[in-house]
């Protein structure tokens, strides 16, 4: 049949339409298959991140805490058997190692460490009402130190059990002369100190064992609900700790004015570990975000892999945490003399602003990438 030049006959047009419809019909299931594969890949990644955080982040950090608190307990008992200034210096070193091991996992406020109030028994801080000091003075005045053991201490107030109470004994006023005098006061202080170190060791070991036998043992067989909760818990811990550092560890000592600045509001000010504590916090948070390099594991930031913008955010957060550590290295008086000078206060305020920026970048991107919603955070206020 003849056709008008430049136009196809109806059968040809119909055939073309049918071919196009066939291609579209084929494209729809292919698109669905690609979407399903992408969703499956995302879920596998989420599961891997959750597993790695449990097995290669939290568990090794609790193993380190167990080892360091055991070393602290042994060093303290060795010193108390023969009190001397050199021995006390060794106890100070062991205390710093154990405390910084705790700081590196302080952000985990869930799981076994919350059982039996271990989290607060390990470190009751901030102690805004001075309960630790009052209860220690009351205990010393009573002379009730002769029968003090880790077991009897575990039944007393949380303010008497952990690192802050031990810090008061080891670094308080006239601590060296009181601990090395060889008299009954020194003996009583040593009994109390070793009760605390033994208690710290026991709590760390129990937490490690329960983490190993619980979440870590089940890490390869998490169901979807457990994966969701694990990712949410670690994400919440990450953002909360950055907020805690900003508001409590930096903001409280800084105060609103130079007159209100208070170096003694800093965590671990007696031992001079305020800044190393924050650096240990940031080291632990960096591992939680970027993964354990030695184990080749993934952290929360591994979820930021959807596009180039995700990669930029991932690198920005990781570098921001490391920058915070380096910044403290360059400002060793940040929470002491710097609190009273204009330039020093600007440095503290800058670090606070920087860490808040890191937190905001993470909070604004990680939730969607991880597929979790934190909801209301009490640290944010109203």
Summarize the structure.
This protein is mainly α. The protein has helices at residues 10-81, 85-103, 118-122, 131-142, 150-153, 163-171, 175-180, 184-216, 224-254, 274-290, 308-329, 342-370. It folds into two domains: 47-222, Up-down Bundle (A middle domain of Talin 1), CATH 1.20.1420.20; 223-381.
Can you give keywords for this protein?
12 helices, Imelysin_sf, 68% helix, Imelysin-like, signal, mainly alpha, 382 residues, elongated, 2 domains, disordered N terminus, A middle domain of Talin 1
Task: Describe the protein's architecture and organization.
Pfam families: Peptidase_M75. It is found in: Cell envelope. This is Imelysin family protein. It comes from Kaustia mangrovi. This protein is mostly helical. The chain folds into two domains: 47-222, M75 peptidase, HXXE motif (A middle domain of Talin 1, Up-down Bundle), CATH 1.20.1420; 223-381. It has twelve helices and no strands. The longest helix has 72 residues, at 10-81. It is elongated and about 110 Å long.
Mean pLDDT: 90
CATH level-1 class of the largest domain:
Mainly Alpha
Order of helices and strands: HHHHHHHHHHHH
Main beta sheet, described? none
Give the strand tally: 0
Helix percentage: 55-70%
Strand content: under 5%
CATH superfamily of the largest domain: M75 peptidase, HXXE motif
Contiguous uncertain segments of 5+ residues: 1-6
Return the CATH architecture of the largest domain. Up-down Bundle
Kindly report the CATH topology of the largest domain: A middle domain of Talin 1
What oligomeric assembly is this protein in?
single chain
Question: What is the number of helices?
Answer: 12
| Count of individual domains | 2
How far apart are the termini?
79 Å
Radius of gyration: 28 Å
Structural class: mainly alpha
Q: What general form does the structure show?
A: elongated
Protein name: Imelysin family protein
Keywords: Signal
Main location: other
Domain Imelysin-like: 58-308
